[in-house]
Amino acid sequence: MTSDANPQLQEKGGPVIEAQGLVRRFGKLVAVSDLSLHVAAGEIYGLIGPDGAGKTTTIRMLTGLMALDGGVARVSGEDASNVGVREQLGYMPQQYALYGDLSVDENLTFFGRLFGLNRAERERRKDRLLEITRLAPFRKRRADQLSGGMYKKLALACALLHQPVALVLDEPSNGVDPVSRRELWELIYEFVSDGMAVLLSTPDMDEAARCHRVGLLHHGKLLAEGAPDALTRRFHHETLMVRTANRDALEDLLVGREEVLALSPEGAELRLVLRRGSTQALLAWAETQVGALHWEPSKPAFEDVFLGLLADPQSCSEPAATELSGGAQ
Amino acid sequence: MSGASKKRRRRGLVLIRFAAMAGKEVNHILRDPQVLLFALGMPVVLLLLFGYAVTFDIDHIPLVVVDQEQSASSRELIAAFEGGDLFEVVAVRETPEEVEPLLQRGVAKVGLIIPEGFDRELLRGDSPQAQLLLDGTDNNSAGMALGYANALSQAATKKAAERAGTPLELPLEARARTLYNPGLRSTVVLVPGLMVILLVMVAVMLTALTVAREYERGSMEQLFATPIGRLEVILGKLAPYFILGMVDVLLVVTVGVLLFDVPIAGELAVLTGVSALFMLAMLMQGLFISVATRNQMVASQLAVISTLLPSLLLSGFIFPVESMPSPLQVVASIFPARYFVHAVRVVMLKGGGFESIGVDCLAIGLFFLAMLAVSIKRFRRFVA
What pTM does this model have? Predict the structure, then answer.
């Protein structure tokens, strides 16, 4: 796609997508509160958070599809609500938003025409996108007869046809099988390497780990922000695997305790994220309740960090990062 | 790029996006046979159904006769009643008391009683009295019968008086001649009215669903993420349905002329012009409903209510607007159906040109512009 690269992509120095103090309320509910973030050219920024965290609301404000109750949303330095911004922006909504009764070809043609591409240019880009998304053999197929993965690839192709400088994807691999998901990510990486700025939302931790930077959104607030591995490094709580004869009893015992930030069964073991410094005392007490326990520290996965952050927003705060590296034992 | 060429390019893009939108709608229409069936089949079927079933022409009113005089003049009066198609003698009885049970049972709707001494009074120059009993539960038939009976008895009285050698000169005599519809055939008046109702229903319903469907399917979110403007969306959606609507006009007029002998006294171009204007106004009303409700279910119900009531009751199709209470007249003057009914009758029956329907065209045009303005205002680029 290098030959097709938008010349504006490489020239931008500042943030391509920018949010400052975004606020959005629905009645009494504050869906997004004082949210700031920026995405640079050539960067993939993942907005992560559980359902209802405010991801879609944030994305809609940044794409000019929702009015703001406060703050500023900009794309390429222009207010996101300006119609002119649309030419800079590629957007793929979370739900099915193409025309199911139109074919793959017709959907692409329609969106290409809306972006004012002339026929020759449109056909050239269409062919290229259909080739790299491997949808070329399905040009005549109706969009509602595509599989979930193929549909998402078509939606991505529709969003990329006008070669935007910013690409915004709302839960792109929602409802997509693992193979298609990998293909989708390969496509995203390819465009990012050409200098496109990508903002995406996901509730999926594996997907979040593929981003250059992530922002953790919870109840409309950005709890933490940084590169996934940096956040993992800075995470200063303790992650461990516990083996016991009676895993369910241990789970019942620990669930809801203040020291326990997260727990999840993994095979015969229990994976725990415990508040820093609480492991020895808590597990010693647990042994008196459910019998012998064997535990060993584990390297925190990004999911642990995410769950830890939900329970304690200070989990990755900067000063703690250096003094606590390897502090699990 | 210079300012002028930028402007030219922008204008070119508006046209391209409008054409893209219209082309997409055409694809939707062609792929949904139900839309075509609804748009083209329903008006014709309804016109046939209504055209044959709905008629305000009253004839063969069942009549019961009591002739106690049994004279030449009494027989003459009965023959006069029997003469036209209006009455049909279904029973002859001896006494007046036997008439009411027949009206009660619905066997007859009118009773004519000629008492003994009718001839004598006529010859004496007194006003002879024949009694007419009417079934008031069917006020249309009763009203017609009364009017006809009055005219008949007047004529019969005159004739009898002439025969008696004392010709009767009425001080004032009305000589009515009905213009434009000499036979007073109701289909001639009804079919143009029906056309209005059918076109209104089809036009508003077609567009009422289009925008709402995009909201429900989620495609509006994708559409708003492109540079397309609100006017381009609205006009792009309007265009294909406008063509479909004009095909409807052609179909309905053809059926009206061929099957119901509705005359087209005026010019076809005038009829087409005013129909096109009306079609635009109605499609726009549908689009406004769609934009405002964002929901196909609510939109279709609103479409039916907002078209059927004004076009059936407030258009002058059945009830003359001039006879309505003034608040209702104000309401009736908002909806274009009233103006279109008037314009169609003027053009089709009276042969009027644009000069005689200027006010109607102006009112319909204003409604279109108002609907366009509120639709664009309501049609915000936000999904929530």
Answer: 0.79
